[in-house]
Amino acid sequence: MRFLLDDEQREFARSLDGMLTAADTPAAARAWADGNTGPGRALWSRLAEAGVFALAVPERHDGLGPLPVELAVAFTELGRHAVPGPLVETVAAAAFLDRLDDTATAALLPQIASGKALVSLCVPAAGSPYALDADTADAVLVVEGDTVRRAETAGPVQPSADPARRLARPLGGTVLAQGPAVTAAAAHAREVAALATAAQSLGLGLALLDRTVEYVKQRTQFGVAIGSFQAVKHRLADTLIALEFARPLLHSAALALAEGADHAGAEVAAAKVTAGEAAYAAARTALQLHGAVGYTEELDLALWIRKARPLRDAWGTPAACRARVLAS
Questions:
Q1: Is the distance from CB of 42 to CB of 19 less than 8 angstroms?
Q2: 10 Å Cβ neighbour count for 145?
Q3: Which pTM value belongs to this model?
Q4: Ordered DSSP codes for 155-194
Q5: DSSP letters along 203-269, please?
């Protein structure tokens, strides 16, 4: 099986990287954490124009997909640049609505593809009763057992290790659909969410590694750059190896999901736990090698460090993912 990206996919990644580099995503993330979603929504519209959300929406609903491999490529770049908002939840909601195949609920799909709708999906069975950005999303879907409802309001935003992850409990709402189709659609949506979160984690870890490598070239001790110390080199090498080991697992999982393989769930779980743990290790390395400055909120590095653990645990904790792999 071929895990390398083709030229078109690599160019897609480069174009997103270039666009996000010029977009000042740290400022958008800080504003989002403060409840000001304006800069984040403007960035969301640009991502939609680039086709990011259309990758999760089928062509019959004005999308381009579903294309799990391209989705993994896109979310790696979104993680690399710490883009705020319910990105994973929106594409997971698209996967859910597509599989649900209900005329009334499918009306959201063209809006997702065009970037006009930020949708949060909450599946308490996945481990959390909270929905990401439930207070600002255009629609919040809650799946409980074989029932899906559209929440009307949200409770207060809960404290989070990552201030840009605004978690709130969805309240009230109208039942949209019930039955086995809801359960099956939710299971598929969870796999898409886990894949996208794994990709975000990979991008996050790569960004942390790049920033740390640049920093150790500049920081000096005893008159020399700390990057020349053997212990520092080994720590960075271990971080790189862990991230590079996660990359083919992510691409393999995306291919398995695209092909509808029976083992896709296990492959997604393997990618999720590997990428999540690698990103978390990259965050610890970045914090240690940056020293005291790594703890300051003023440094943009904190935006990436504070995402590592929440992403590691979102849409499948390491323990849950390992259990899924062992059970396959």
A1: no
A2: 11
A3: 0.96
A4: -PPBP-SSTT--EE-EE--EEEEESHHHHHHHHHHHHHHH
A5: HHHHHHHHHHHHHHHH-EETTEEGGGSHHHHHHHHHHHHHHHHHHHHHHHHHHHHHHT-TTHHHHHH
| Residue 195 near residue 256 (C-beta atoms within 8 A) | no
Q: Which of 210, 203, 221 is nearest to 285 (CA)?
A: 210
Per-residue tokens: 52: 């990011």
What is the spatial distance between Cα 150 and Cα 142, in angstroms, rounded to a whole number? 6
Nearest to 72 by CA among 201, 248, 256, 195: 195
The values of phi and psi at residue 18, to 5°, are: -65, -45
Residue type, 275: A
Token pair belonging to 215: 């920093």
pLDDT band at 293 (very low <50, low <70, confident <90, very high): confident
Write out pLDDT tens, residues 118-149: 999 999 988 889 999 999 999 999 999 999 99
Backbone angles phi, psi at 133, to 5 degrees: 55, 35
Partnered with residue 174 across adjacent β-strands are: 150
Region of residue 281 (left: phi > 0; alpha: psi -120 to 50; beta: else): alpha
Ramachandran region of residue 142, left (φ > 0), alpha (ψ -120 to 50) or beta?
beta
Distance between CA atoms of residues 200 and 196, nearest Å: 6
| Mean pLDDT confidence for 258-275 | 96
Helix 68-80, helix 230-259: angle, nearest 10: 150
What Rg value do the Cα atoms of the chain yield, rounded? 19
Contacts by 235-238, CB closer than 8 A, 24 or more apart: 235/285, 235/288, 235/289, 236/209, 236/212, 236/285, 236/289, 238/281, 238/285
